[in-house]
Specification:
alpha+beta; three-stranded antiparallel β-sheet; 11 strands; disordered N terminus; disordered C terminus
C-alpha cells in the first residue's frame, strides 16, 4: 500500500507480501497479500494547525542566537559576533534582519564602540531562558535516557557524533551537551573511532529496555514481555480518510503479527515481509515518541537509515500507515507527526522541554503585534508630518497672496 504525493494523486501500486517462518509453526501468518490502491493524500487541518510543531523550524535559529547572547559574560553582543554565522545557526536570512523580526525576544541598542547595533534579551526572554536552564538541570537523567534509547536502537549500539548533534534539537538536548561529557554523560557511554574517520558515541547497557508500545500494552494487560508477542498499534484515522476493504483486511492481519522491539535484534526474516514492515513501523513509532514535538522533518530522518538498518525507501512506511503517521507539507517541507501523541492523553510521555518551547513560541507571536503597532505608529507620524507640511505650504501661499494684494493697492 503506497501513497505517492504528486498533485494529490496516487498511482495504482501492486504489492505482494510473502514470507515463511519455519521455526514458529504456532503462529498464524498471512502467507500472501495483494493490495491494489487508488487513494489521494488527505489533508487533516488538526495536525496542520499544531502551532509548536510548525513554528519549531523558526524557533530553532532563535534559540541558537539566544544562546550566543546568553553565553557572553555581558549578556549582550554586537551584530558582528553573529553576522557571518547565519548558515551555522540555520538563520534563513541576514542575521540582523532576523533579529529585528523578533523585538519581543531580542532588544536592539547602539553599542559603546563604532555605533554598531548590539542585541540583548528582553526581560521576558531572559526569564524563559532561566526556566529552560532549570529544566535541563532537573531533567538531566531523563534527557540522557532518551539519548541512550536512541543509541540502543541502532544496529551496533553506536552513533556518529555528527548524527547526534544533528538530532539534539529533536531530543531536546542543549547545544553544548557533547562539549561537557563529564557533566552530561555517565560511565556507560564511551567515545569510539568509527569507519571513515568518524568519532562516535557507543553505549554498553545490559538492562532490558521496553519501548513505549510495550509499556502501554503492559499497563493494559495485553503484553507479558515475552518474545514474538503480538501488540496492535493504536490507529487514529483522519476525518474523511477511508480505506478500501482489501486494505482494511490487510491492516487487520498486519496488527496480529508479532511485535519485535526496536531494542531487540531482528530475526532472519525476509526483508520484504510484513513482519519486518511491522518492526520498521515500531522503530519509527519509538523514535518519534522520544522527540520533543513527537515529530520531525522527514528528510532529517533519512540520515539514520544506515545506522538503524532502515530500508532505502523508509519514507514509504509513513505513507502506508496514515492511521499512525501524518505527513504535513507546511513550511515548504514534509513533517512526520506521530498521531498517537496528539490523540491520546497518556499513551506517549510528554517531553519536559515542550512546555518551555511553547513559552518561546508565544513570545514569538507577540513580536508580530509589536511590529504591527510600529507600522501603524509610523504611518500616523508620516500622516501628521504631511499634514503639517501642507499646512505650512498653505500659510506661506496665503502670506504671499496677501503681500501681492498690498503691493497692488500701493
Amino acid at each position: 500500500m503506497i501513497f505517492n504525493f504528486k498533485k494529490s494523486t496516487v498511482k495504482a501500486v501492486k504489492l505482494s507480501y510473502k514470507y515463511k517462518v519455519q521455526s514458529l509453526p504456532f503462529l498464524n501468518f498471512q502467507r500472501y497479500s495483494y493490495v491494489n490502491v487508488y487513494m489521494k493524500w488527505k489533508k487533516d487541518s488538526y495536525f496542520d494547525s499544531i502551532e509548536h510543531i510548525h513554528e519549531s523550524i523558526q524557533l530553532k535559529p532563535i534559540i541558537a542566537l539566544k544562546n550566543c547572547i546568553v553565553r557572553d559574560p555581558n549578556g549582550c553582543i554586537p551584530i558582528s559576533t553573529v553576522s557571518k554565522r547565519g548558515l551555522e545557526l540555520d538563520v534563513p536570512m541576514k542575521v540582523a534582519r532576523f533579529l529585528r523580526q523578533y523585538p519581543s525576544i531580542f532588544e536592539e541598542f547602539t553599542g559603546p564602540k563604532y555605533n554598531l547595533p548590539w542585541f540583548r534579551l528582553t526581560p521576558e526572554a531572559a526569564e524563559i531562558d532561566k526556566d529552560e536552564k532549570r529544566v535541563y538541570e532537573e531533567c538531566r537523567v531523563e534527557l540522557k535516557a532518551r539519548l541512550k534509547k536512541m543509541i540502543l536502537m541502532t544496529r551496533e549500539n553506536v552513533l556518529p557524533l555528527k548524527i547526534i548533534q544533528g538530532m539534539q534539537w529533536y531530543l531536546g538536548l542543549p547545544n553544548d551537551f557533547l562539549q561537557y561529557p563529564e557533566q552530561n554523560l555517565d560511565e556507560s557511554f564511551k567515545f569510539v573511532e568509527m569507519e571513515d574517520g568518524l568519532k562516535g558515541l557507543t553505549l554498553d547497557s545490559g538492562e532490558k529496555i521496553y519501548s513505549a508500545m510495550e509499556k502501554n500494552a503492559m499497563k493494559r494487560g495485553l503484553y507479558t514481555g515475552g518474545p514474538m508477542e503480538a501488540i496492535e498499534f493504536p490507529l487514529y484515522p483522519s476525518k474523511g480518510l477511508r480505506l478500501r476493504t482489501k486494505i482494511e483486511n490487510w491492516l487487520h492481519e498486519f496488527q496480529k503479527l508479532p511485535y519485535i522491539s526496536p531494542y531487540d535484534d531482528i530475526p532472519s526474516f525476509d526483508r520484504n515481509s510484513d513482519i519486518v514492515e511491522k518492526r520498521l513501523v515500531g522503530v519509527l513509532h519509538e523514535l518519534l515518541s522520544l522527540f520533543v514535538e513527537h515529530s520531525a522533518e522527514r528528510k532529517k530522518l533519512f540520515c539514520l537509515k544506515k545506522y538503524f538498518g532502515l530500508p532505502q525507501k523508509v519514507h514509504k512506511a509513513f505513507e502506508r500507515h496514515p492511521h499512525m503517521f501524518y505527513l504535513s507539507f507546511r513550511n515548504k517541507t514534509c513533517t512526520v507527526i506521530l498521531k498517537e501523541a496528539y490523540r491520546s492523553n497518556s499513551a506517549i510521555e510528554k517531553h519536559p522541554l515542550l512546555r518551555v518551547r511553547k513559552k518561546y513560541i508565544k513570545l514569538m507571536k507577540e513580536s508580530e503585534v509589536i511590529l504591527r503597532n510600529r507600522r501603524v505608529k509610523n504611518r500616523f507620524y508620516n500622516c501628521n508630518a504631511e499634514l503639517d507640511l501642507d499646512s505650512n505650504n498653505l500659510n506661506e501661499r496665503g502670506h504671499d497672496m496677501t503681500s501681492c494684494s498690498l503691493e497692488q493697492v500701493m
